[in-house]
């Protein structure tokens, strides 16, 4: 019956129950998820570029430090360039910590919170199809002859219709609640993450080490212990 209903809807012959407000919200969620996935992809690319930059600066600082010891005539010049690269490395690692926190939070929002709501939406859409299938069946039987067998089939169809109607209405209510809470959670999460991202990026490119470190303290971000082979952001991708 569900296959019959689905085909009749696709070919424009069957009637379909539509909750316009809810379906508009669902489509908006799907579009928002696609856009956030794009932001997540770009933010991950940024972490990869930053990591490569920090690694290059670290190697360059080591090369300058080595040349400072072996080139007496340019010891001072190589020395202060080595120190500059070390400072840039430290700031870069701090920025990576902030960007990784941003990536992790957006990933949770997109692939857990939004995905959980969309799973309920899929259940709702299946229940809507089943509801319409049994509604159509009941309507067809109601218009048919009323012999003994038909009355029995009508009673069975009425019972099945009521069961699927209850399921559909429950899931419709569940989706409405989840969409409401998701919107509230999204605003709360993104307000914090966008502030973090802005403050960290601004401080880094302004060369403000103190403000950069203060940003991490403000958002309770812990950096991985120095000396580890790879920063945590790379391991979590």
UniProtKB/TrEMBL annotation:
Pfam families: Arfaptin. It is found in: Golgi apparatus membrane; Golgi apparatus, trans-Golgi network. The keyword Cytoplasm does not apply. Residues 154-185 form a coiled coil. Keywords: Coiled coil, Golgi apparatus, Membrane, Phosphoprotein. SUPFAM superfamilies: BAR/IMD domain-like (SSF103657). CDD domains: BAR_Arfaptin (cd07660). One of its GO terms (cellular component) is Golgi membrane. The keyword Coiled coil applies. GO terms for molecular function: phosphatidylinositol-4-phosphate binding; protein domain specific binding. GO terms for biological process: intracellular protein transport; regulation of Arp2/3 complex-mediated actin nucleation. Residues 17-217 form the AH domain. This is ARFP2 protein.
């Amino acid at each position: 019956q569900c296959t019959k209903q689905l085909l009749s809807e696709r070919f424009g012959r069957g009637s379909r129950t539509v909750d316009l407000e809810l379906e508009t919200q669902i489509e908006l969620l799907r579009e928002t998820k696609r856009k956030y996935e794009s932001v997540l992809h770009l933010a991950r690319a940024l972490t990869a570029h930053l990591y490569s930059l920090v690694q290059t600066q670290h190697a360059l600082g080591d090369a300058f430090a080595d040349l400072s010891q072996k080139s007496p005539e340019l010891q001072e010049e190589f020395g202060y360039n080595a120190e500059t690269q070390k400072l840039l490395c430290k700031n870069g690692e701090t920025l990576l910590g902030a960007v990784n926190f941003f990536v992790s939070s957006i990933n949770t929002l997109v692939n857990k919170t939004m995905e959980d709501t969309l799973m309920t939406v899929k259940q709702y859409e299946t229940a809507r199809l089943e509801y319409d299938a049994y509604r159509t069946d009941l309507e067809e039987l109601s218009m048919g002859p009323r012999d003994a067998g038909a009355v029995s089939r009508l009673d069975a169809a009425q019972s099945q219709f009521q069961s699927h109607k209850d399921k559909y209405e429950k899931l419709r209510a569940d989706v409405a609640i989840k969409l409401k809470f998701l919107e509230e959670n999204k605003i709360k999460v993104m307000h914090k993450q966008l502030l973090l991202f802005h403050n960290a990026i601004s401080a880094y490119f302004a060369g403000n080490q103190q403000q950069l470190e203060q940003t991490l303290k403000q958002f309770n971000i812990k950096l991985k212990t120095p000396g580890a082979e790879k920063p945590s952001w790379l391991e979590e991708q």
